[in-house]
Amino acid sequence: MGFTWKVIEKDLEGLAQRFKATSRNLANTNTPGYARRNVSFENELRDVIYSDRKLHMNITNPGHIPSRPRAVADVTPKEIRVTDEMYRLDGNNVDPEREMAILGEARMMYTAMTRYAGKKRTGLISAITGRG
Questions:
Q1: Does the reported pTM lie above 0.85?
Q2: What is the dihedral of CA 113, 118, 120, 124, to 10 degrees?
Q3: Which one, of 104, 72, 78, lies nearest residue 8 by Cα?
């Protein structure tokens, strides 16, 4: 599997996890004390994609912590519990309008990535079959 396909797969994985977290946030809109969840992966993925433009740090011991993920497969979407925001007096920090906006943005990004993957697949099929 090529580098581009791995990036597409990882991006879709992260967006799917964001869908789940945002849906859970919306389901818990009226749950007192519920802290909204956010999914983060784009910065890590961007670091891997553009790693050739950065200064590489050598790891001299297996116990050392790497400065960034080494490969696309090492990028893991992380669900973060957001506790430093306040939306309501009962401790719940879910703003339904904000969550709907996040859901809409994730849907558009997911759609764009699946369309890109489809066009890439069509191009590969054309190259293999000699049509085009």
A1: no
A2: 160
A3: 72
Q: pLDDT, tens digit, for every residue of 107-118?
A: 999 999 999 999
CA 55 – CA 58 distance, rounded (Å): 10
- Say if residues 103 and 27 touch (Cβ distance below 8 Å): no
User: Which has the minimum average pLDDT: 13-22, 87-96, 108-117, 121-130?
Assistant: 121-130
CB 87 within 8 A of CB 93: yes
Burial class (CB in 10 A: 0-12, 13-18, 19+), 112: exposed
The pair of structure tokens assigned to 88 is 């309501």
